[in-house]
Amino acid sequence: MIVAEPTFTKTRNIENYLDRIQLKSKGTIKNIESYLRRFDSYLQDTYNKPNEVILDEILSMKNNQDVVLFDILQDFVNYLSGKTNRLNANTISSGYVRHTVYAIKGYLRFYGFKITSDDLKDALTLPRIVEEEREPLTREQLHLILNNQTGLRRVLYLVMSSSGMRPSEVLQIRKCDLELEKYERILVKIPAKITKTKKPRITFISKEAEKELLPYLKKINGNSFIFNPSNKTMEQIRLSELQIFGRLREKIGLSEKYESGIFHVSLGDSLRSWFVTKCNRVDYGFGHALAGHDQYMKRYDRLTLEDKIELYLKAEKSLQVFEYLDDDKEKKIQELEQKYEITNKKLELVLNMIENSQKNKSQIVIGRKNNFDDL
Q: Which of 27, 92, 163, 333 is deepest in the core (most CB within 10 A)?
């Protein structure tokens, strides 16, 4: 007698796995799908069978399931490590290979394999991640970026460099998320649903960025996206901004890449790193906290809002792009102001002496005239 398969049983395939993890962020799901599709294409090219057929065959084996599975995974790792990546670097990065393997692990567990992260570490030889020394964004480069951009997009870059928000966050910020007048600087309340950590946080916008932002805010209502006036989907606006920044980067000659193929200057990492570095000089970890790095946020949650504003105001001096004065220049200006003040006082003293001298001369002349009249 044939027993019908229960109607509530889901078929094990990539589509149903993606449906199962739908509560993850859209970006994460998209990456996982990309990893799994690549794995499936590799299996079809290598064995002329889709992943479901191969995985079913392995599960049906009475012995050596793990051996066969890890042999296939290791072959796939070796295959990836010898491929050229989408940025035309020599090889796909070690980080990409590791992300792919751990994404496949989740799918394999869904499929019915009892596999853990420790199993992967023990059974597979993964490429080591080579640490590249990243070059920080310079003030001159930021000048170049902003001077070659106009309108709302120029304001976007200024706001990002002074607030530490991710592209995915700043592009979803609405006017109602800003506290415009209550504090010394614009306070940004970033909703949990748009942050990477899914935790709400605050940050600030510099006075320099505020000057260019306010005219645009006056034109929109409270519920409007500030930097997404066309109300595109998050994926559409994110890709659009990345492409526009890529063309700008090419135009102004900032297209240099690391060996891994990653650009030295990028829309997200470079502007956020600029912000974090400047704020951390005031109090180490403060920049990380405002930028949304989870391990630092707890420490700064204990500070009052007034304390955070005070720290930000100290950091703001070095966050300035066009209005920046380094310590040496500021010291020289103060010295000149002091000299100017001293000179003014000396000049005022001389003028008073001249004025008094003239008064005395006038009194002498009048006295002589009176004496002459008496004669």
A: 163
Give 146's Cβ-side CA count (13 Å radius): 21
Total of domains in the chain? 3
- Angle subtended by helix axes 65-81 and 26-47, to nearest 10: 100
Q: Is the pLDDT of residue 89 over 50?
A: no
Sheet holding 186-190, edge to edge: 178-179, 186-190, 201-205
Structural domain includes residue 284: yes
- Looking at the fold, whether 286 and 220 belong to one and the same domain comes out as yes
Closest CA to 254 of 104, 325, 149, 151: 149
Locate all alpha helices (DSSP H) within the chain, ordered by sequence.
Answer: 14-20, 26-47, 51-60, 65-81, 94-111, 117-123, 139-147, 151-163, 167-170, 207-217, 234-251, 269-280, 286-291, 294-301, 305-319, 327-374
Output DSSP code: residue 225: B
Domain with 193, as residue range(s), is: 139-319
pLDDT at 94 over 90: no
CA atoms within 13 A on the CB side of 133: 0
Residue 130 falls within a domain, yes or no?
Answer: no
Could you give the residue ranges of the DSSP H alpha helices within 82-138? 94-111, 117-123
Which residue is listed with tokens 């000048």? Answer: 143
241 vs 246: CA distance, rounded Å = 8
Residue 82 is predicted with a pLDDT of 83
Residue 128 lies in a domain: no
Q: Would you tell me how many other CB atoms lie within 10 Å of the CB of residue 358?
A: 10
133 in any annotated domain: no
Whether residues 252 and 294 share a domain: the answer is yes
Residues 190-209: pLDDT tens digits? 999 999 888 999 999 999 99
Q: Which of 4-8, 128-132, 151-155 has the lowest mean pLDDT?
A: 4-8
Global pTM? 0.75
